[in-house]
Write a structure and sequence with these properties.
The chain is mainly α. Helix content is 68%, strand content 0%. The protein has 9 helices and no strands. Helix 7 packs across helix 8. The longest helix has 29 residues.
Length: 194
């Protein structure tokens, strides 16, 4: 989905479009928005600056579209075990944010919130909100099935579960592989039906 209409001739190369967007995401994570340049994106994507400008009007358009193209993948398989499903969701999230430059990317969009609000708006819409819906959905299913106590504040519990991964990384610079299990096990007594 190019930013500018293609005036005819050969169709646009969708593979090049995706290489440009992928290079933009990587460079945003490594250098931040201020350090991002069209020239660096073109080089990393194996193309030229004019090719990038044919597709995107400027750096803001490029960065915004790169983030808008990200998404949380389809829902994980669910089971009858609500606790196991919460652990699976947190494992999936941990994998996403602990990949190389994953947390740096989060920092980039937060750092630009005042100057380039479209970045964080797309980040929230494409990644944060779907993730929260997935975790919240498991909690709501748990309440409906009677496994979790009724009237649970889904917003607070969702924030505590997901937020624990960010908090652990900020405190120590890592998120252990067993963090999802430890987090759910620690929260579980407070949310399960007695």
């Amino acid at each position: 989905m190019p930013s500018k209409p293609h005036p005819g001739g050969r169709p646009r190369d969708a593979e090049l479009d995706e290489r440009i967007l992928a290079a933009t995401r990587e460079l945003l994570a490594v250098h931040g928005y201020q350090g991002l340049s069209i020239a660096a994106v073109a080089e990393a994507a194996g193309t030229t600056r004019p090719s990038v400008y044919l597709r995107f009007t400027d750096k803001k358009d490029l960065a915004t579209r790169a983030i808008a193209g990200m998404n949380v993948s389809d829902e994980l398989q669910t089971s009858e075990d609500v606790q196991a499903d919460l652990v699976a969701e947190l494992r999936h999230f941990r994998t996403a944010v602990t990949r190389p430059n994953g947390m740096a990317f989060v920092g980039t969009v937060l750092a630009e919130e005042q100057h380039t609000p479209d970045l964080i708006a797309h980040f929230r819409a494409r990644l944060v909100e779907p993730r929260r819906r997935r975790v919240g959905g498991v909690l709501e299913r748990g309440m409906r099935s009677g496994v979790l106590r009724p009237g649970l504040d889904v917003d607070v519990v969702t924030t505590a579960l997901i937020g624990s991964i960010y908090a652990r990384y900020l405190a120590t610079g890592d998120v252990p592989a067993d963090w999802p299990e430890r987090t759910v096990a620690s929260v579980w007594p407070g949310i399960c039906q007695s």
